[in-house]
Specification:
The protein folds into two domains: 1-39; 42-239, Porin, CATH 2.40.160. It is 15% helix and 55% strand. It has one helix and eleven strands. It has one helix spanning 2-37; strands spanning 43-59, 72-83, 90-104, 107-112, 117-122, 129-148, 153-174, 182-187, 196-206, 209-216, 230-239. The strands form two sheets. Strands 1-2-3-6-7-9-10-11 form an eight-stranded antiparallel beta barrel. A two-stranded antiparallel ribbon has the order 4-5. Strand 7 (153-174) and strand 8 form a beta hairpin.
């Protein structure tokens, strides 16, 4: 009897030593799954680097100014991607960026000193123009609403608000007065410009290639103090990272 009792105790202890770790492992697994299930906060998933390459259409240009040329531009944005829980295809993007617009014309944007108004002055047709370019640079904060399908199809709607970093003008060719004298310069003497910019934009595409469209809501210059022009852009976007 004593021998039988000892064997039973040893067997019970052996069984307990085997079962206990498995039970503890299952318990830890359940706690982890429960903790995951309780996480309903927005998750910062990853950052992204996006480059837009586009042609700018200048809305509101004076009729006497010829601007029917290619106006290249680009923007670069670095954004965080805020991913929603439960594997939602909707995410939000927020970050920083910079944009550059160009404008090629047969005119110079100059200050009329008496009323202090910026005006386009068409260069004499007899003067040879190699370059008459307006440069427009912005620093902005983009906010995006994104939809991504598992197939790779993507749609993005966004708004960008920022500061006007530069409006300048570069000229190369003969003097506008028709004298034939060659000159080359760049000037930052652009007055009455808006300090802020705001534009809306959209991207649609597949994986890392998208079609890009944007429209600036506000004008480059203050009302009645300069040409009421604004850029609209159409091009492609590359999701570099």
């Amino acid at each position: 009897m004593f021998s039988f009792a000892v064997n039973q105790c040893i067997t019970a202890q052996t069984t307990d030593s085997v079962v206990a770790p498995t039970s503890q492992k299952n318990s830890r697994k359940n706690r982890i799954e429960t903790a995951k299930g309780d996480n309903n906060q927005v998750e910062i998933f990853r950052d992204r680097l996006i480059m837009d390459i586009f042609h700018a259409f200048w809305i509101g240009m004076p009729k006497e100014v010829s601007s029917n040329k290619f106006h290249p531009g680009f923007s670069i944005s670095a954004l965080w991607d805020f991913k929603m829980p439960n594997k939602s295809p909707i995410t939000f993007g927020l970050g920083l960026g910079v944009s550059y617009y160009s404008q090629y014309t047969n005119a110079l944007l100059q200050n009329d000193p008496v009323p202090r108004i910026m005006r386009y002055n068409v260069v004499n047709p007899d003067s040879i123009i190699k370059r008459s370019r307006l440069n427009y640079v912005n620093c902005y904060i983009p906010f995006e609403l994104r939809y991504r399908h598992k197939s790779g199809f993507k749609i993005t709607l966004g708004v960008r608000v920022g500061l006007v970093a530069e409006i300048s003008q570069s000229y190369k060719g003969e003097l506008p007065d028709g004298s034939g004298t060659k000159t080359r310069y760049k000037t930052f003497d652009i007055y009455n410009k808006q300090k802020y910019n705001c534009d809306v934009y959209a991207r649609i595409g597949w994986k890392f290639v998208n079609v890009f469209y944007s429209y600036q809501i506000n004008k480059l210059f203050e009302k009645d103090k300069g040409p009421q022009i604004s850029p609209m852009a159409l091009g492609i976007s590359l999701s570099i990272f």
